[in-house]
Design a protein that fits this description.
alpha/beta; about 300 residues; disordered C terminus; binds flavin-adenine dinucleotide; about 50% helix; TIM Barrel
C-alpha cells in the first residue's frame, strides 16, 4: 500500500497538465506551509523567522527539467541575484539548486557556464551553493561537474543518496577533495538495478554513509526527518569525539518542527531547506510520495487566510 501511494505521487509529480492546473490555483495552498512563496523576496520573512529561531537556511528556486537555453541562463541569473540578496540582507542562508534547472538536459557546456557564473558569485559573496542530486541517470554527470568545479571553487557542495548502490564508492572517490556533502535517503523512483528497494536496506546504507562521511573529517549535512537516523548520527559523533561543528542536520521547511527546535536547544546546527517559486507542484508531489500525511499541510493552507 505504502509503495503504491509512493508510486502514485511520483507519477503525478511528472504530470504536466496537473502541474499547469496547480499553477492556476496559485501558491496559496502551500505558502508558509512547505514553501516560502513565489519569489525570493516573499521567502525573506520566513528566512528571518528561522534565523531568529537559531536555524540556518538553504533556499531553492523551484523549477527543474528546463528545456529552453534562455530559461536556463535566466535561472542562473536568478540564483546570482538570490546570492546577492542573501549577502545584502545579512541572512544566514545558503543556496541549493538543481542542474536540470540550469540546462543539464540541454548541453553540458551550457550547464557548466551557468554553474561557473553562479560559483564565481558564491565565492565572491562567500555563500555556499549545494548541487541537489536528481535521478540516477543524471548522477554521474552531476558528480563529474561537481568534482571539476570543486577544484576551482570553495563554496560548492553536493548530495549523496543512500538508496543508490554506488554511493559508498562515490564518497570514497571524492574523499581527497574533502567535500561538504549532504547525505539523504533519496527521493526519486529508481529501478532495482541501481537502488535498494527495501526501506530497511536504504536505512542500513544511510547509517553506513553517515559513519563514513563523519569519519572522513569533511563537513557533513545529515538531511533526514527520521528520528532513528538523527539519533544514530548524534551517538556516532559523540562516541567518536566528532565535534558539533563538523556536521549539521537538515530538514525540509514545515516538517518535524519540534524536532528541529529540540536539536537547536541541544546545541546542534540545524539548516532548513526552504523552496520558493511558482513551480512548486513537482516538489509537493515528491513530499506526498514520501509521506502522504503531508497533504494535511496543504488542506490547512487552503482554508487559512
Ligand atoms: C534538506 C533536505 C534536502 C534534500 N535534498 C535531496 C536531494 O538533493 N536529492 C534527493 O533525492 N532527495 C533529497 N531529499 C529528500 C530525501 O532524499 C528523502 O526523500 C526525504 O528526506 C525523506 O526521507 P527521510 O530520511 O526524511 O525519512 P523517511 O525514510 O521518509 O521516513 C522515516 C521516518 O521519519 C519520520 N518522518 C519522515 N518524514 C516526516 C515528516 N514529514 N513528518 C513527520 N515525520 C516524518 C517518520 O517517522 C518516518 O517513518 C532532501 C531532504 C532534505 C531533508
Amino acid at each position: 500500500m505504502e509503495a503504491l501511494s509512493r508510486n502514485f505521487f511520483l507519477y503525478l509529480s511528472k504530470n504536466q497538465p496537473l502541474n499547469k492546473l496547480a499553477n492556476l490555483y496559485g501558491i496559496r495552498m502551500v505558502k508558509g506551509k512547505i514553501v516560502g512563496g513565489i519569489s525570493f523576496d516573499q521567502a525573506i520573512p520566513f528566512i528571518r523567522e528561522l534565523n531568529a529561531d537559531g536555524m540556518s537556511v538553504t533556499v531553492d528556486h523551484l523549477g527543474e527539467y528546463v528545456a529552453d537555453p534562455h530559461t536556463a541562463v535566466e535561472r542562473a541569473g536568478e540564483v546570482v541575484a538570490a546570492l546577492e540578496l542573501i549577502k545584502e540582507a545579512g541572512l544566514d542562508a545558503q543556496v541549493s539548486l538543481k542542474l536540470t534547472s540550469l540546462g543539464l538536459d540541454i548541453s553540458e557546456e551550457l550547464v557548466r557556464l551557468n554553474l561557473r557564473r553562479i560559483l564565481t558569485a558564491a565565492d565572491r559573496l562567500d555563500v555556499m551553493v549545494t548541487i541537489d542530486m536528481e535521478d540516477s541517470e543524471r548522477c554521474q554527470k552531476t558528480l563529474d561537474l561537481f568534482q571539476k568545479l570543486k577544484a576551482d571553487y570553495q563554496n560548492v557542495s553536493t548530495v549523496i543518496q543512500a538508496y543508490l548502490y554506488r554511493s559508498n564508492d562515490d564518497l570514497e572517490k571524492m574523499e581527497q577533495l574533502q567535500p561538504f556533502i549532504r547525505l539523504v535517503k533519496g527521493a526519486y523512483k529508481e529501478p532495482k538495478s541501481v537502488a535498494f528497494q527495501e526501506k530497511r536496506d536504504v536505512d542500513t546504507n544511510y547509517r553506513k554513509l553517515i559513519a563514513r562521511q563523519l569519519d572522513s573529517g569533511s563537513y557533513t549535512a545529515i538531511a533526514t526527518h527520521d528520528d532513528r537516523m538523527v539519533s544514530f548520527a548524534k551517538h556516532y559523533a559523540f562516541e567518536k569525539g566528532i565535534g558539533k561543528d563538523k556536521f549539521e542536520f537538515q530538514m525540509l521547511y514545515g516538517m518535524r518542527q519540534q524536532l528541529q527546535q529540540e536539536l537547536v536547544k541541544e546545541g546542534y546546527k540545524v539548516r532548513i531547506y526552504l523552496p520558493y517559486g511558482d513551480d512548486w507542484y513537482g516538489y509537493f508531489m515528491r513530499r506526498l510520495a514520501e509521506r502522504p500525511a503531508n497533504i494535511a499541510f496543504a488542506f490547512k493552507g487552503m482554508t487559512k487566510k
